[in-house]
Amino acid sequence: MNENEILRIENLTKKYYNKTALVDVNLSVEKGKIYGLLGPNGSGKTTLMKVIAQLHKQSSGQVLINGNPLSYESKASISYMPTENFLYDSFKVKHAVKFYADMYKDFREDYAMNILEEIKVDPEFRIAKLSSGLNGKLKVALALSRNTDLYMLDEPLNGVDVLSRDTIMDLITKSYDETKTFIISTHLVSEIEKILDSVIFLKDGRVELFGDAEELRLSKGTSVEGLYKEVYKNV
Ligand SMILES: Nc1ncnc2c1ncn2[C@@H]1O[C@H](COP(=O)(O)OP(=O)(O)OP(=O)(O)O)[C@@H](O)[C@H]1O
C-alpha cells in the first residue's frame, strides 16, 4: 500500500433498484491533496460521497480508509458536508455551532467562531434568515471546523454568489495542511480549478479521467475546464 494513501476504492458498484449509479470505480486518494470530484448532474458524485461516508451501502466492491475497511471509526472520522440544507431553520447560528460541538468530539468551537467572525456571519442570526451565500459559507465553516484528516464537501459552491464562492475557496485553502485531504464535488469547474491538486471526472457512474491537475494541463495542453468541456460535450 502507498503510505500516503488515505482512501482506496476498489471495483465499487452501487445500484439503486433499476439504476446503476456507480460502475466499477477504482481510485486512490492521497493525503495532503485537494481533489475535485467533477461531473454533470447525475454522474454519481453524491452517491460516491455517500458510500464513502457510509450513508449508502455499496452493491459490490470495497472502500478502504487508511488501509482498513469502512467502520464506525472511519465514519466518525470523515467530515462530510451534504449538499442539502440540513441546519434547522429555527436555530440561530450559535445553536448550529453548539450542535456540531455536541455531535463531534473533534469539533473546534473557537476555530468555528473565528471563521464566523472573519466571514461576517453573526452568531445571533437565525438560520432561516440567512441568505443562500451566508448559509453556504456557514455549512462549509462548520465542516472545516472539525479537526480530522478527510473532508468531503458536496457541491459547496452551488447556489451561492460569486463573492461567497471566493470566500468558500479561501476557507478551504486556509484550513489545508499536508495532513488533510479534501474531496470537493462540483460542476463549477472554472472557479474551483485554481485550488485543485487532482481531478476525478465521473461520467455515467464511471471514472472517465483521474489524475494530477497540472500533469493533465501539460499533457493535454488545456485547462481542467477545457478538458471538462471536451469530456462532457455530448452530455
Ligand atoms: N436514492 C436514489 N434512488 C434511485 N436513484 C438514485 C438515488 N440517488 C441517486 N440516484 C440516481 O443515481 C444517479 C447518480 O446520482 P447522484 O446524485 O449520485 O449524481 P450527482 O453527480 O451527485 O448529481 P447531482 O449533482 O444532480 O446530485 C442519478 O441517475 C440519480 O438519479
From TrEMBL:
Glycoprotein listed as a keyword: no
Stated name of the protein: ABC-2 type transport system ATP-binding protein
PROSITE patterns: ABC_TRANSPORTER_2
InterPro entries to which the protein is assigned, alphabetical: AAA+_ATPase (IPR003593), ABC_transporter-like_ATP-bd (IPR003439), ABC_Transporter_VariousFunc (IPR051782), P-loop_NTPase (IPR027417)
Entry keyword Transport: yes
Keywords: ATP-binding, Nucleotide-binding, Transport
Domain ABC transporter: 7-229
Pfam families linked to this entry: ABC_tran (PF00005)
SMART domains per the UniProt record, alphabetical: AAA
Gene Ontology terms, MF aspect: ATP binding; ATP hydrolysis activity
Residues in the signal sequence: none
